[in-house]
Write a structure and sequence with these properties.
Arc Repressor Mutant, subunit A, 9 helices, elongated, alpha/beta, about 40% helix, 3-stranded antiparallel beta sheet, 2 domains, about 240 residues, Rossmann fold
Length: about 240
């Protein structure tokens, strides 16, 4: 019997499409796309080719990188957050560490290199969907408003050059600090607001914070951690 979760697969290789269908079709609601253009059209929800898109909630996307009409990394770099709110994992023959780093920086929950172990993929996808379901069912208590007015003490002095060098997630984290009282946030609030109900690996936030802290240091800003309060604080040197 199929569960209620809906998985979208972006893959053009017939061999791997067969594998995915064999693994997932009996368990989940599935949508298969083969090009970046189809992927973008699906999430724009305007194309008559995908009338179901407007009413479809995708719980997870499984994406290949190298596709007939381009490289998915190019989509990540130019996307205006259209489809990136959807949790996604990458499965690709691209084993370059730079690709892996970039995908994880842009929010990928995992990265598999082809050929992969079917059992590993099955277990990890099950765990991701299970964690996401648990997270979405919890009441979101004591989470600061993600969209309060910007505070003014630091905001005018943030150089545009700094912001332009940040990745999507780094920018979101920076803006969240600027909107928070005393520019201070609990770790769990950062994760819950930035990734919402998406399950992410514990070190994901650490990677983004590490990269962000390196970039802002040369502009005279630091993000410090207090063990006493378990909070991160943005401040000017």
């Amino acid at each position: 019997m199929k569960s209620g979760e809906h998985i979208l697969v972006l893959e053009d290789d017939p061999e791997y499409l067969f594998i995915y269908k064999d693994i997932f079709d009996s368990k989940y609601q599935m949508t298969y796309l083969t090009t970046i253009a189809e992927f973008e059209q699906f999430f724009q929800k305007k194309d008559s080719q995908y009338p179901q898109a407007a009413a479809t909630k995708i719980d997870l996307a499984i994406v290949d990188l190298k596709l007939p009409d381009g490289h998915f990394l190019n989509h990540l770099s130019i996307s205006n957050n259209l489809a990136l709110d959807v949790p996604f994992v990458v499965i690709s023959s691209d084993y370059e560490i730079s690709s892996l780093r970039y995908c994880l920086d842009e929010g990928a929950l995992d990265y598999f290199v082809k050929p992969f172990k079917r059992s590993e993929l099955i277990v990890k996808i099950e765990r991701i969907l299970s964690k996401n379901k648990e997270s979405s069912s919890k009441l979101q208590n004591n989470i600061p408003d993600p969209n309060p007015p910007l505070t003014t003490q630091l905001q005018p002095s943030i150089p545009s050059d700094l912001l332009s060098h940040l990745t999507k997630k780094e920018y979101e984290i920076m803006m969240l600090f600027l909107k928070s009282p005393n520019y201070t946030l609990h770790r769990k609030h950062l994760v819950e607001i930035i990734w919402k109900n998406v399950s992410v690996y514990p070190k994901t936030l650490d990677v983004h914070l590490y990269n962000l802290r390196k970039k802002i240091l040369s502009f005279g800003f630091v993000i410090t951690y207090s063990k006493e309060t378990t909070q991160w604080t943005l401040s000017k040197i």
